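Hi there, hope your week has been kind to you so far. It would help a lot if you went through both lines with me. No rush at all, and the record is pasted right below:

***
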Amino acid sequence: MRRRTLITSPLSWQMAAAPVAPPLIPVLAERGGTQIKAPQATILVDSREQIPFSFSRFRGWFSAIDKKALRLGDYSVRGLEDCCVVERKDLNDLIQSFTVGRAQFLQRLRLMSSCRHRLLVITSSLSQVKSPYTHSGANPNRILQSLIAVLGGLGVPFITTETHELGEEVVASYLYQVHLYAWLEANDYGRFLADNDL
């Protein structure tokens, strides 16, 4: 007698990636059920960024998107440049940064580690980071372990996104929320979005 499996093993599940459109506004702040009207931030994009996020889909989230040479990172928020830094890497740039450009990249990451809000965004999936590279002889294990060392040793968190577009949304959301939390705190609302919540 054959046993019949009622539920397929999670190991055999496959997700069909079909990201939904971004929200009109990522989050709102409220106190006692009343929305707090916070001013919109200005996103700063480093003028030297090779393939910058345009943020055109998120214009309603920000008052402006300006290009300028940033001291550190690729993206920040006007007025928070000294404490908010986002560095973006595609897979080729990540490999290059952890091999031939390692010393300079690690120095930038050390500087980032002193910022309160810091994020390394990789516009590639983690499985691609861990897979053999057709364009490089670099060892995927070395690249992944370098990322983990950056997280564990320097305290710089990283996130991977499958596409440039998802990376753009993550960075837009992150910058929006960093600004909102900073504004709430500076205006004596406390560092939370809603009562008994984040």
Remarks:
- The longest strand covers residues 62-68.
- The radius of gyration is 20 Å.
- The CA atoms of residues 113 and 153 lie 10 Å apart.
- Residues 164-186 form the longest helix (23 residues).
